Amino acid sequence: MTGGLTKFHPSGASTRRRLGCVALIGLLVPTLAGAAQLAESDARAVRQVVEAQLKAFAADDAAQAFSYASASIQAQFGDADNFMAMVRSGYPMVVRPSSVSFFQPQIEVGTPATVTQRVQLRDREGRLWMVTYRLERQTSAGWRISGCVAAADGGKSSI
Length: 159
Prior knowledge:
Elements: H1 12-34, H2 40-58, H3 62-67, H4 71-77, H5 80-90, E1 99-102, E2 106-108, E3 111-122, E4 128-138, E5 142-152
Antiparallel strand pairs: 1-3, 2-3, 3-4, 4-5
């Protein structure tokens, strides 16, 4: 070994080690790509979109909240009233949380125009929730929310 690299020898054991290293590198490259930092301006814009939608939910402004949804979400629900009805029934914790804490947004592996924004919310009953938003960069509208998953947090997340 020289400098941490294995020299290539055509023997079977060496070839298996080399192929194992190549496979390991193949597994790590997507992980490292996913660890790429989002530009600070994009991180701010992503957070602002989520904050603005939360503010619109709190104000019962369905049209404004709907405007932060991606084109595919808007097509799925058709109008702001249908969207707001879904949010109230499926995601009541996002309508008027008593506290909100943001994690750093992360670029999704292989899709630089898609990020996830994790948010810890405390609902009005004091329960903690981890809400993961998926946002896509829309050609004409900037960052828009294309999905959301909420799970009870139990206070184990570290911000």
